[in-house]
Each structure stands twice: as C-alpha cells, then as structure tokens.
Design brief:
It contains 15 helices and 15 strands. The chain is an alpha+beta fold. Helix 3 links the parallel strand 11 and strand 12. The longest helix has 20 residues. The structure holds zinc ion.
C-alpha cells in the first residue's frame, strides 16, 4: 500500500528579551551556574505577584503578524496545572483559549527534485501563544544512589509556543519549515533561534495514512530533537517504523518517543498525560492584555519586508536563480548588503550576486561577522566589480583587492593607486616580457610549434608570474600567438 506522511510540529521559541516574562531576572542564562539567575517570583515563593514584561507581548505580536496570524484586541493568561519538580509553582502561566494570536500560516517554497517539480506547501498554524518556560532536571548517580538535580534558571524565560496543523507531508518539508522559521525569527529580531542553546525546540507529531485518505491515523510524538538534521532523521526513522507495523498487521499506539542522537534511534518514553489533565483556568494574578490599534501600530512601525517576499522579489525583479535568491535572503543583513551593492554598482545583478556568493560569503565564513559588519562595504564591493568590468584590473587582482579592502578598510581606488595594481595592457611592456620568456624557453617553444598548443596557458602563466598577476591576459595571449608562429 502507498502511504502519505502526516506531520505536525510543535515549537517552543525563546524570545530574546533582556529579562524574564514576569520578573526582572535576565532571560538568557545559558552560561550561568545552576540556580544563580532566579528570584522569588520565578521560583514561585508564596505571596509574590507576576508583572508582565511588555516586550514579550510586543515580540509575540511581531511574530504573529509575520506568521500571517490575527491578533485579537484582548487576550488572557491561564494556569496550566501539573506537578513536576522543574515547576516550582505547580503550574505554568500560559495562554489557552484566548491567546495573543489566531490562525496564520507559513508558505514553504519547496525546491524541485529529480522526482518532483518545485511547489509551495502552505503550513497552517493551529495555535500561537506566549508562556513561561519551566526549569531543567537531570538525574545523577552518586555512590550507588540516584538523585535528581534541579536548575530553576530557565523558569520564567519567555517563550512563544507555536503548533502547526498536520500539514507537512515529508521529513524534508518538516526540515524546510524549521529552516524557514529560524530564518524568519532572526529576520524580525524576536529570537536568536539557536537550536543548540534551546532557543528553538521542536517536537514532531507523526502518522501515516493511505494515499487519498482524509482521516488521521494514530500519531506518535517525537521529543528531544534539537537540530534540523535530527528532526529529519527522527521523522524518517519513525515513518519507516510505522510502515513496517502496518505491513505486519499491527496497530500504531500513541507513544511518546525520544530521539537519541548518539545511536540515531527512537526510544519509547512514559505514556503521556492528556490535555484535560491540565485543569486550565484563568490566571487571577494577571490582567488581560489589551492590544490597542495604536500600540499595535507602534509595534509594527518599521516592519521589514519578510524573507520569502524578498526572495520572490530577488527572482522576479533581478532575474536571479532560486539558488542565489535563497542564499542572499538567508540572513537579513546579507540581503540588505546585496541591495545596497547593486544600487551602487548599477550593472548586471547576477554579476554582483556571483561576487557575493563566492567572495563575500568566504569573508563572512572566515570572520564570523555579519555582512553589515564587514570593512568591505557594499559601495566598495561595487567599485571593485566596476574596476574589473572597466578593464582597470583583472579578475584575480579584483579578488585579492577585495581581501585587502576588507583588511584595511581603505577604498579600492586608493589601494590600486598606492600598490600600482592597475592592469598592464601596454603593448610594448607586455611584448618585452613575452619576448624574454620565448628566448629563455626554447624547449617549450619547440613543443608548442610541434603541436602542443596547450602550452599557451603555461606561457601566459609565466608572464603573469613575472608581472605580479597584473597583466592583461587576453592581450598577452595574442602577443604569444604572434611570437610563436
Ligand atoms: Zn526571577
């Protein structure tokens, strides 16, 4: 039987605020020792009251709008009650039925493969709300006993929980969703979205059904997948397992599975509580959030063009291939850099894109800087490409000039002037060097004349070396051709 894969993703996104959601402790304590970034509020001491961090609401609204969701004028907080050692209050402050956002979607441009043409997958958002994070526990064995350690540093860290409808149809689509979501979060500046630092966490609900069916089969939930590659690998494994179960005439049970990165395998976890067990009710210690039109307008002032829209515009307005548009819009500062460079350059955008993808990307990878931080400004890059286009310097000089500009911050013109980098295309200068090379290498001249015309590259290379790479290569070649006849 042919099966269709049905996947929904639940993500927890850490918002990059200065402080936690309901107290003044700092939000990011990734490098801190356990239990050093806590206070009576986030550890739920008796008598304390939470105070909502305004920036959490603002970043939540930004994300909701970027996800095409509606933002109702009033939303509420609710208590989600459960008992676990990492939750000192005995409940988590979250949002249940009246949350910050309603609806929404993300469109994924899926690239063409050998089997399928390119297409767009629309992933609808089932819910999007803000909430506080819980602490962390770990087990440790000491002298034959086992003890559980608790770190409350993460208690009260602001999160957006975002759950998709079961609209994803393959492990590739799930990976694509996370890639696009991470790009979007960084683009609008609401999260660092670093999966290794748990800024972006993902659980995957996976089931399969016969192709064409409109019902949902029993799903399993995969937890602890903390990289995009792990999500892809874990879903692929689970789909194989479910197919084998059905083929053997067995049923799928509603398990919670844990991804083990070391063995690249899934392990069964304890059975899961159902939603009803949480006894949600309104949080009595917090007021409703009133999102006025004026406040929303203030939040959305300067809202940027989003990455997928910019990607589409780079393809349609500049005629770039999808590959180029994808890389150039991978990060906001790089796509701004590209637009500034082509505005200053005025030539073929694809030519500017080639320089960016090959040479500027290398500088970025080597330095770990963002495009906006390079000493090689977009205007300098445009100038270097023009110097090459105008025949003032050759391509190789252009590439080394780019590195020199980026090291020194000096303008390309200045460096060309002081280092005498301008290309030598003066006929007599080239001819003098070419003649001496021909005179000093009779063996190569003989080989060339007897038919080894491939040696032309060697002759030009000799001349380039003697002239410090500054020779006009086509001219040099023409002179050699004449001399060697
Ligand atoms: Zn605190």
């Amino acid at each position: 039987m042919d099966y269709e894969v049905v996947i929904g993703l639940e993500t927890h996104i850490q918002l990059n605020t200065q402080t936690k959601i309901f107290c003044a402790c700092k939000a990011d304590s990734w490098n801190d020792a356990p239990n050093t970034n806590i206070c009576p509020v986030c550890t739920g001491m008796p008598g304390v009251l939470p105070v909502l961090n305004r920036t959490v609401v603002e970043k939540g609204v930004l994300l909701a709008v970027a996800m095409n969701a509606d933002t109702p004028p009033v939303s509420y907080f609710d208590r989600k009650n459960y008992f676990y050692p990492d939750l000192p209050k005995g409940f988590q402050i979250s949002q249940f039925d009246c949350s910050l956002a309603k609806g929404g979607w993300l469109d994924l441009p899926m690239p063409a493969t050998d089997k399928d043409p390119a297409y767009v997958r629309r992933v609808r958002i089932h819910k999007l709300h803000i909430e506080e994070d819980a602490g962390k526990t770990k087990n440790e064995s000491v002298g034959g006993y086992s003890r559980r350690l608790i770190d409350f540093n993460r208690c009260g860290v602001p999160l957006v929980e975002m759950v998709t409808e079961p609209d994803l149809r393959s492990a590739d689509e799930a990976a694509q969703y996370l890639t696009r979501l991470r790009q979007l979060l960084r683009w609008i500046g609401v999260s660092e979205a670093d999966m290794e630092k748990a800024h972006l966490r993902c659980d995957a609900n996976v089931s399969i059904r016969p192709v064409g069916a409109d019902y949902l089969n029993t799903k399993t939930e995969i937890k602890n997948v903390n990289s995009i590659e792990a999500v892809r690998a874990a879903i692929t494994k689970e789909v194989e397992r479910q197919k084998a179960e059905y083929a053997a005439g067995r049923k799928i049970e509603s398990w919670t599975l844990e991804w083990d990165e070391d063995s690249q395998s899934l392990k069964k976890m304890r059975s899961k509580e159902t939603e009803a067990d949480y006894r949600y009710f309104r949080e009595p210690d917090l007021l409703p959030v009133y999102l006025s039109d004026a406040w929303k307008a203030e939040i959305l002032a300067g809202f940027p063009e989003l990455p997928l829209a910019r990607r589409a515009r780079f393809i349609s307005a500049y005629g770039l291939p999808e590959y180029d548009a994808d890389i150039l819009t991978g990060e906001r500062s790089l796509s701004d850099y590209f637009e500034q460079a082509i505005a200053a350059y005025g030539g073929d955008p694809k030519r500017a894109s080639n320089w960016l993808l090959n040479d500027v990307m290398r500088l970025l990878n080597e330095s770990g800087l963002t495009a906006g931080e390079l000493k090689l400004t977009p205007a300098y890059l445009a100038k270097i490409i023009k110097l090459v286009d105008d025949g003032i310097i050759n391509t190789n000089t252009g590439k080394s000039l780019l590195e020199k500009v980026n090291r020194s911050g000096q303008s390309p013109d200045e460096i060309v002037e002081t280092e005498g980098l301008a290309k030598v295309s003066d006929d007599s200068a080239l001819r003098a060097v070419a003649e001496s090379i021909v005179a000093e290498n009779p063996k190569e001249v003989e080989s060339y004349k007897s038919g080894k015309v491939g040696l032309m590259g060697w002759f030009v290379g000799q001349l380039m070396r003697q002239m410090g790479g500054k020779a006009d290569a086509p001219k040099a070649r023409a002179i050699f051709e004449e001399l060697l006849q």
